[in-house]
Amino acid sequence: MIDNAIDKQDVLKIESLSKTYKSNAKDLTVLKDVNFNIQAGETVSIVGPSGSGKTTLLGLCAGLDKPTNGSVALFGKNISELDEDQRALLRNENVGFIFQNFQLIPTLTALENVTIPLELQGAKKVKEKALELLDRVGLKDRANHYPNQLSGGEQQRVSLARAFSNEPKLLFADEPTGNLDGETGDKIENLLFDLNKEKGTTLIIVTHDLELASRTSRVIRLKSGLVVSDKSN
Amino acid sequence: MNWSFLFRTALADARTQWGKLFLFISSIVLGIAALVAINSFNENIVNDIDKQSASIIGADIVVTGNKAIPEELAEAIQALPGEKSREQELLSMAFVPKNEGSQFVRVKAIEGNFPFYGKLITEPASAAVDFKNNGTALVDKSFMKQFGLVPGDEVKLGDQVFIIEGKLMNNMGASNLGAGFAPTIYIPFANLASTNLAQPGSIIDYSYFHKVPADFDANIWKSENRRTFSNESMRIRTIDDQRENLNEAFNSLNSFLNLVALVSLLLGCIGVASSVFIYVKNKISSIAIFRCLGMKSNDAFIIYFLQILVLGILGSLLGAFIGSAIQILLPKVFSDFLPFTVATEISWSAIGQGLSLGLLVTILFALIPLLEIRKISPLRTLRTNFQEEGTGRRDPLVWLCYAAIILCLTVFLFTLTGSIINALIFMGGILIAFFILYMVSKMIIWAVRKFFPRNWSFVLRQGLANLYRPNNQTQILLVSLGLGTSILSTLFIVQGLILENVNAMDAGAQPNMILFGIESNQMEDLKKTTRDFDLPVVEEVPIVTMRIEGWKGRTKKEWLQDTTVRVRRWAANRETRVTFRDTLDASEKLIAGNFVGRIENPGDSIFISLDEGYAESLNVGLGDEVVFNVQGMLMKTYVSSLREIEFVSMRTRFFVLFPRGVLEDAPQFQVLVTKAPNEDVMAAYRTSVVKAFPNVSVVDLSSILTTLNDILKKISYAVQFMAGFSILTGLIVLLSSLILSKFQRVRESVLLRTLGASRAQILKINATEYLLIGVLAATTGILISLVASWLLVRFQLDFDYKIRFLPIILVFCFVVFITLFIGLWTTRDVVNKSPLETLRKDV
């Protein structure tokens, strides 16, 4: 009963969200009055054309940025009321990331990249856990390789292992297959959904790829900063 | 805070790039090396002064004066327990019969067993004692070498010929700098009379040396007797005084050396700040990832701070090691300035001081760019070109760093100069130089953008645009190279001007020989000899020696005891050499009162003319009464005029000028000034004079010039050695900056190569950029040096300023060439290899 109650909580609650960037000539509003909730366990795609505000929305949802108006409540906490370090702590304890350009730290090995979120948590048996995840993504034997010694697909697999290493409740993926060829992209997709299922993580994917979006339970469509549709698959 | 994780991450992140990272920190190595070397050298000097003071002064108590000890003081001297020795020292000509050579020398006639501590080093060693018993001479090694003499040869001093007992290898109590002008010859005291060199009017220094028993306190004796002796123009020195004097003298040298080291350190620190700035820029994406994964901003800062700290420590240790090695060289560089030998021991306190100051300043400079890490937003993981809000405003902590740097340096300067005003002036000077260079670089970047020559060729436009494009090195290179250039250029300009001014004394019809110590009855014969050589008698000056007895109604003693009035002791106590004439000469300018050239009737008031500065030293003005003791006879005079004397040519100058009609019958000696057309005539005339008139001394300008040239060369060698630290640091900053800019530029160079740019085109683009940077840095540095040297020459050295183009052009070419060379050398990788190979390796 308790688990179910938690499961049905809103892990993310967006209310009247808007974001405006100040530019030299005039202000540029990228998001306008966006509202939606995402419950634990959901898999959601945010789709839309270039410039529709997808990445901005992801940044706000993940607590990487602050809204101009409205609120973002992540696990019940309004991120506007948190300072940068409190938001970092919130991310470290609850959130995982996968990026289009992998965002591995080039000077650290694959293993070290995966251990960072665990180390930040002060977790025990960090190396064992990281190796287990690298094994899960099929890269245990490449654990001591640096990112520039890995292919794009391999780098994204390391990124997946890192994203799941802190057992996040919510995983953000920004165009996770955008930089990969079709076949590699498919493998990454499968791995992402498999891991998501195994760990029971809430997943939010920002993508152009409608095929990828079709694999999620819900699709939020953005156009010119506005939510134009929010449908379940 | 998980320190273990932060430290491990810092190490892991740095692991693959220690080489590159070390380059960032390399620029401080020499700065710290300079500090450690100089501090070690200084500590060794202080230790050696402590150890060697006794052997430098040679006795426990030394009483000196320019007259024999008066009767009333002789008793106090006689009462001193222990061993005694005495010396008379005068300047004279030495004649070498073997090859008919002559040279102006310092004759020291010595009696007793001086030096009681230390020893005269001679070849053969036994000569140091034997010359006293054999009535022979010890002759300075440079004199022996100059005339090709060996022990057993002869040297004539005045009327007496001495056999040379041995070669004198050391110069007791003095540095070697003056030895070239007047080398020392020791003779036994008993033989001085037979030379007939000690004549009325001769300038003789008298020294009385005492070795007292260990339980006798020389300092107490000095404090009890100092005033009585000083009232009679006699000075007492003890071993402690010697130590203090040497320490004071070398404090100035040490301050100068430390200032040079500080400039090197500052240049290095600027290099570090610039390198760390670029390093942080390269690390932005990694930092954003850390932040995105939940790392606190302070933790991210600590990771990179730890890296720089470790590197700073390593760099400082290397600097300390190199500094300790360099300090072995310093005693050699400065050997001519030091009257004693300096040990080359490792000084742990100097290493500690160099390390702590170096590390502190390095970290403060590195903190300025490092603090920016705290502001890097995790949003950069999603948008690489994201700009954090408020980056235009300076972080208060950055201002705190600037304040801490200025405070640290000012405190350090204060410890060097001992004066807060001087420390602030020097700090202000550094800040102004930095500010000028910084503003010039800003203006250049602005001007290149504003007036960009769009119709130039692609290659030139690319090279020019590199001056202002993102990640440009214009500012850092202009500041570091410009500062180095200005130091080098100032040095050359001032050195050249000093030599030029001295050489100018020899120009045209200016006299270049002075003969002094001439007795009145020798004058006619000497004039004849002069005319026989076809030389003019430019000046013929009678000189009467006298002492000041009192002025303005009080005796000299009363004036000197009065602590409420500032009277210069040297001015009151000196034996005054006075001449008399009825006109002022060309080098004199009347600035107050009326010059009286002649007294018509005996018994009339005597009106004298004083040098302005001398009058001030005595606290005397127009109309004041001054009483002189002219060889036993008191003479009351009145000051009727004040003169300003120009010291620009080789002529006689007198602080006190009497009118005609007063001193004509007083015991006097003569001075003759002449002008020889060349060195050969000078040498022949000198030899002829010394042979015929052994008591007459001949000083010629060419030997002074040679000595001065020699001294300046030695000084400039030492200064250049030290300035070398700054220049070398500047070059290392240049090298590291250029290598860093290579990392910055490699992508665009490779892209240009990929798009079909030829090797020559890439080289030309880079050459244009580095040539411009070199030219701009050299020009700005030289402009600063022109102002600095003008200020120095105008206010410190007080002579005419003229721009000398040759050294400026040389410095300019050197800086431009070295910038271009290092710039192109760092580009060679990009142009010599295939684009793909470079891309894989560097990007």
Question: Could you explain the architecture of this structure?
Answer:
The complex is a heterodimer of chains A (233) and B (843). With 233 residues, chain A is of the alpha/beta class. Chain A has eight helices and ten strands. Chain A has a six-stranded mixed β-sheet. In chain A, helix 4 (110-121) packs across helix 5 (126-136). By secondary structure, chain B is an alpha+beta fold. In chain B, a hairpin with a 2-residue loop joins strand 17 (625-630) and strand 18. In chain B, helix 8 runs antiparallel to helix 16. Chains A and B meet through helix 2, helix 3 and helix 4 of A and helix 1 and helix 9 of B.
Integer average pLDDT of chain A: 88
Query: Largest sheet of chain B, order of strands side by side?
Result: 2-3-8-5-7-6
Main beta sheet of chain B, described? 6 strands, mixed, barrel
Instruction: Give the overall shape of chain A.
Output: globular
Q: Would you tell me which CATH topology of chain A applies?
A: Rossmann fold
* Envelope shape of chain B: elongated
Broad CATH class of chain A: Alpha Beta
Q: How does the helix and strand content of chain A classify structurally?
A: alpha/beta
CATH architecture tag of chain A: 3-Layer(aba) Sandwich
Report Rg of chain B.
34 Å
Helix content of chain A: 25-40%
Largest sheet of chain A: 6 strands, mixed
Percent in strands of chain A: 25-35%
Oligomer state of the chains in this structure:
heterodimer
Radius of gyration of chain A: 18 Å
Rounded average pLDDT of chain B: 82
Provide the domain count of chain A. Answer: 1
What are the defining features of this structure?
heterodimer, A: 233 residues, alpha/beta, Rossmann fold, six-stranded mixed β-sheet, disordered N terminus, B: 843 residues, alpha+beta, six-stranded mixed barrel, six-stranded mixed β-barrel, 25 helices, elongated
Question: How is this structure best summarized?
Answer:
The complex is a heterodimer of chains A (233) and B (843). Chain A has 233 residues and is of the alpha/beta class.
